């Protein structure tokens, strides 16, 4: 399982192409809403869950996929970017897992992410 305490893992920028890595995992009717990538790792928001991908090893052929269903979210918190601090942060609290933190860099529409989480968890 991914170490969500390691914040360096989740310095994410929007990247539509990263969604291809999770395509084989998607269920019938499940749609990709948005995807983000760090150096090698990434996160994909779908209509049913958040999928975190940790690419491992020198060649990157080994991957760890963590499925985080919206139905298990009990609360979330968003810190948007500012004038000098361009990073944004999303903290999600899952009923059985605890807190998961994602850090975003660059211009990310945090309101879109809030809508995904609210639409499917409330």
From TrEMBL:
Name of the protein in question: Bacterial Pleckstrin homology domain-containing protein
Stored InterPro entries? PHb, PHb_sf
Q: Which domain of life is it from?
A: Bacteria
Record-annotated Bacterial Pleckstrin homology domain positions = 15-119
Q: Name one Pfam family in it.
A: bPH_1
């Amino acid at each position: 399982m991914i170490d969500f305490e390691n914040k360096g893992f989740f310095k994410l920028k929007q990247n539509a192409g990263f969604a291809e890595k999770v395509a084989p995992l998607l269920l019938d009717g499940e749609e990709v809403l948005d995807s983000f990538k760090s150096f090698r790792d990434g996160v994909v928001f779908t209509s049913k869950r958040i999928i975190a991908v940790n690419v491992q090893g020198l060649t990157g052929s080994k991957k760890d996929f963590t499925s985080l269903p919206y139905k298990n979210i009990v609360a979330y918190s968003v810190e948007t970017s500012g004038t000098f601090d361009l990073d944004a942060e999303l903290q999600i609290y899952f009923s059985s897992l605890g807190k998961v933190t994602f850090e975003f860099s660059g211009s990310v529409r945090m309101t879109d992410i809030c809508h995904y989480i609210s639409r499917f968890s409330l």
